């Protein structure tokens, strides 16, 4: 990765280990938060920042969380899921937004799609920003490979032209995320014992300290454009 070039999603996943860690990992925490009880779920997500100027190798990140999406019944087919990622921000300086992320917690059995939606794809290019979806499949990346423009560093840069056929990439096959107790149907009923035995076998309790720091959200120094429609379709 060239000096001052923002990391791609693959480089973030390889360099910042706590993003994909099981114990208190960024994506695992968002996945767990997506299931407040055994009957409901909501999309969770946020914004991943790195040092600015960007070092030659990115090994740490700062994360702010977005407000949770609308709460849905995870056991029945219902309205489209969504989360508002229009307002990145962070209460610190000398960082640049490198990607946003959100979960897709609905099971395909009730109409959920583990892959980035058309709205996700469209918005990623409109924001000039790589996106990450955390789902039962694993970790998807979509949109531009990396942020190319460093203007408005704590917010979104200028839009970039999308390809004729936008595609997503399964950057890391599941896990993460690991099954959580309120996740229907895998974390409830007969499936739960097997799921958590697998979790125990892949636990990383002896891993090194976190390289992701959570920071309070702030709109200071951020320029916002017109909000984009986030509806999943």
UniProtKB/TrEMBL annotation:
<protein>
    <recommendedName>
        <fullName>DUF4329 domain-containing protein</fullName>
    </recommendedName>
</protein>
<feature type="region of interest" description="Disordered">
    <location>
        <begin position="142"/>
        <end position="180"/>
    </location>
</feature>
């Amino acid at each position: 990765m060239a000096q001052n070039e923002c990391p791609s999603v693959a480089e973030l996943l390889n360099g910042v280990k706590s993003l994909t860690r099981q114990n208190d990992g960024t994506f695992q925490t968002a996945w767990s938060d997506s299931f407040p009880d055994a009957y409901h779920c909501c999309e969770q997500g946020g914004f991943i920042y790195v040092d600015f100027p960007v070092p030659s190798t990115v090994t740490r990140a700062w994360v702010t969380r977005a407000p949770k999406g609308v709460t849905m019944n995870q056991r029945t087919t219902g309205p489209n899921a969504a989360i508002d990622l229009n307002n990145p921000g962070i209460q610190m300086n000398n960082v640049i937004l490198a990607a946003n992320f959100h979960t897709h917690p609905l099971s395909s059995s009730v109409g959920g799609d583990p892959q980035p939606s058309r709205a996700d794809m469209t918005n990623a290019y409109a924001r000039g920003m790589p996106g990450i979806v955390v789902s039962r499949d694993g970790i998807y990346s979509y949109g531009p490979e990396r942020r190319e423009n460093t203007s408005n560093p704590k917010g979104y840069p200028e839009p970039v032209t999308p390809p004729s056929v936008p595609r997503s990439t399964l950057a890391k096959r599941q896990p993460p995320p690991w099954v959580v107790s309120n996740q229907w149907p895998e974390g409830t009923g007969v499936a739960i014992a097997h799921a958590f035995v697998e979790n125990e076998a892949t636990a990383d309790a002896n891993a090194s300290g976190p390289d992701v720091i959570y920071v309070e959200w702030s709109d200071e120094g951020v320029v916002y454009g017109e909000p984009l429609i986030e509806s999943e379709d």
